[in-house]
Amino acid sequence: MPKAASNADGYLLLHKNSGLTSFDALYQVKRALKTGKVGHTGTLDKFAEGLLVLVIGKYTSLVPIFNELDKVYIGTIHFGKETDTLDPEGTVVCTAPVPLRDRIFAVLPSFLGTQIQIPPAYSAIHINGQRASERMRAGQAVEMQGREIRIHELEVLHYEEPRLTLRVHCSKGTYIRALARDIGRAAESCAYLETLHRVAVGPFTDTDAVDPESGDRGVTQLQEALKPITPELFHQLNIPIVLLDRVDKTYVLQGRPLDPLLKDHALPQSSTLLGLFSSEHKLLALIEKASQGRTGAWSYKHVYPH
């Protein structure tokens, strides 16, 4: 029988399979770890597969940090058709001749860099307190506002008419479904995203993610995949750390002023976040540098009792 997972705290790299919703995947994790505190750092559509980075237990307050990470996808664009959802599960709303290969390849460089992208109407973005997708399914008109994104790299992996497979390295908030739509229109045709695989989130890759089996075996796999929040993780996230001794640990957990504590430590000038860890490498607090007021003043963002 799988062991009980009490006081589950940390992060977990989960592979979501196509055909499963992200919330179904999260429910499986909640059951296995016996906790309702599971924060996601970006969901995947039902038709998509790939990496979900989950933050568990008392560390769910770290979700905004993970949300800032770039993502890498491999997606296949199908030209000549566009669906209302911009994926294979939607209804075809547009057809057009498949553009020539040279035309498709000619427009790809225009999608590199910073740009304004109109998200899909079928999305989890909230409009006046309700998801845009819910409004669309209720027959309501939805006007999506453009958002700034950045596409760092577009690499062609394969082309065979009418399909183009790309590797996309992009900023948070980028919709690959919308990218497929826009590439199709730029090539004077139309298109939808046929397949999608999220292969990386920041320094984390799908090859390192757990793909749990069903039943007790899957529960054990998920419990064993839970990783602690460590100084090494903060280094991966490019957040500096300070290691504190036992006396300073008590000082921090009491929420006492930071300036006297930090005055003897060499602190980074560029970072606005800092992780305070115990000598046992337990995260005690996340602190932030004030954006206004006293120059260089640090304050508590979150404290994590142990």
From TrEMBL:
The keyword Isomerase applies. Its EC number is 5.4.99.25. InterPro entries: PsdUridine_synth_cat_dom_sf (IPR020103), PsdUridine_synth_N (IPR002501), tRNA_psdUridine_synth_TruB (IPR014780). It is an enzyme of class 5 (isomerase). Responsible for synthesis of pseudouridine from uracil-55 in the psi GC loop of transfer RNAs. PANTHER family: PSEUDOURIDYLATE SYNTHASE TRUB1, TRNA-PSEUDOURIDINE SYNTHASE. This is tRNA pseudouridine synthase B. It comes from Gracilinema caldarium (strain ATCC 51460 / DSM 7334 / H1) (Treponema caldarium).
